[in-house]
Design brief:
Structural class of chain A: alpha/beta
Helix content of chain A: 40-55%
Largest interface: A-B, 91 and 92 residues
Oligomer: homodimer
CATH superfamily of the largest domain in chain A: NAD(P)-binding Rossmann-like Domain
Largest sheet of chain A: 8 strands, mixed
Strand content of chain A: 5-15%
Number of helices of chain A: 11
CATH class of the largest domain in chain A: Alpha Beta
Distance between the termini of chain A: 33 Å
CATH architecture of the largest domain in chain A: 3-Layer(aba) Sandwich
Order of helices and strands of chain A: EHEHEHEHEHEEHEHHHHH
Chain lengths: 283, 283
């Protein structure tokens, strides 16, 4: 069954970009937005959705339901979504952590005739809101999917996976636990490493004038530090164990660099860092 | 006394860019390069110098002597430079740490009729060598200078400071100790934070395929990790106390983030990080 109607719940940067990307890739069905009236207005103007609707109406008539709100809002709304989703429809999400959402969904969808598939498109850019939504946002991006083990793929899901590819992304299957463990290392710790570095430099510099004595390195390393706590709160609250473990690994590595600072052994640490550096450029 | 002849010792990225920048800014005197024959050839081809010469000849006839080799090479060569420098000339350098070089220079230049002024242009780019030298490299950059307290400014030094401005940089005076303390925080720790993060991610990821589950954040945060130990060795060996202290401050900050991960107090840490983030964008 091909997807004919899509509901996007939360038409911000990710939700809006998904709508725009679908249209650009040739989706001719209807895209219904569920958001606050001002957001719907902006999304319509931007061409990201065809019309707005209350959640009850939108979910009752859509084949694919895409939850693109902040994590904590998704968690809160899952029971309502499971109740309202049309039988046979597929509900998926864009939350940046997966274990908490998938666990909540498993309970919420137990008696639902709709199905849930956890997802996380690894794409984004600075800023937020549908105003900066971008039909190319998912080009070249990995779209993590966390299917239930043993569940068969329904038709809507097959079609959804085709649309992921048509908008330029490539699906990668992981368990929710694997996803959260890996993103703690590759995304959550980099954020905290940047924020902590910015906070440490702010603490350590007596004189703000001395910030002039900084090269491009500090700029790079504190770019993520511009992120607001609001955006990160949901991630930190739903993945604390993995993040703590990954932070401990990072701290141990910094301590090793500190303790070998003037030892020739440091050359090897630089080398393994260089290998990872190259790998991040190749993926 | 205006500078009529400049000797650049070590015609790599920084030395070559200094030559190109001087010419672009209207310097009509002669620029003499001191480097290995293949480097001199490349520098001539690139237009960064007017001719090459052995160190003895170049230093004996130049008004300004610019040492742009790696730190450890500068340290090693300072006594020879002090001996060979023309009486009345100014010797300055581009080493990334200052206390060790200034201390060595104080001893080496004690009986010299040339003068030494420590310097560190805060400019650079990825890669190395005169092939990527750039006449715009110092545009907008801070050029740290570490004059001896109480020493009067000689004519050559005044003229050198004018050339710093003409090539688009702005001088900032610091003591060598202050310079090394500040750059430990603003440059050396960012480098080690990046290398350690890359090494930790390499350690922590079981499966390299999982690197695909990484956004732009990890890329940013591991850009510096591409640096080679060779380039950093001299910095680490000549500034270990400040770097250790700054690393300890950074570790303490990461531990605070870890311990407050799910606490509302984390909002304040994100905020002080955001303030520093903005400041690095404004300077």
């Amino acid at each position: 069954m091909p997807i004919e109607k899509v509901a996007i719940v939360g038409v911000g940067l990710i939700g809006g970009s998904f709508g725009l990307a679908l249209k650009k890739a040739g989706f001719v069905g209807e895209i219904i937005g569920v958001s606050r009236p001002t957001t719907i207005e902006a999304a319509l103007e931007h061409g990201a959705i065809d019309r707005g609707a209350p959640i009850k109406d939108a979910l009752g008539e859509s084949d694919l339901i895409f939850l693109a709100q902040p994590i904590l809002r998704i968690l809160e709304q899952l029971p309502e979504v499971a109740r309202l989703a049309r039988p046979g429809s597929l509900v998926t999400d864009a939350g940046s952590t997966k274990a908490a959402i998938v666990e909540r969904a498993a309970a919420a969808f137990q008696d639902s005739k709709a199905r849930f598939l956890g997802g996380h498109p690894m794409a984004g850019k600075e800023g937020r809101g549908v105003a900066i939504a971008d039909d190319d946002l998912f080009q070249g991006a990995v779209w993590a999917l966390t299917p239930q083990p043993g569940s068969s793929t329904c038709d809507v899901e097959s079609d959804f996976r085709r649309w992921i590819e048509r908008i330029g992304a490539s699906a990668l299957e992981l368990s929710p636990q694997e996803h959260d463990r890996v993103t703690a290392l590759t995304s959550h710790v980099p954020q905290l490493a940047s924020s902590a570095l910015a906070a440490a430099v702010a603490d350590g510099l007596g004189n703000q004038e001395h910030l002039r004595v900084a090269g491009g390195g500090l700029r790079d390393m504190t770019r993520l530090a511009g992120s607001s706590y609001e955006i990160w709160r949901g991630i930190l609250l739903t993945n604390p164990e993995n993040i703590r473990e990954a932070l401990d690994l990072y701290i141990a590595e910094i301590e090793a660099f500190r303790d070998q600072l003037t030892s020739p052994e440091l050359a090897e640490r630089f080398e393994s860092a260089q290998i990872l550096h190259k790998q991040t450029r190749n993926t």
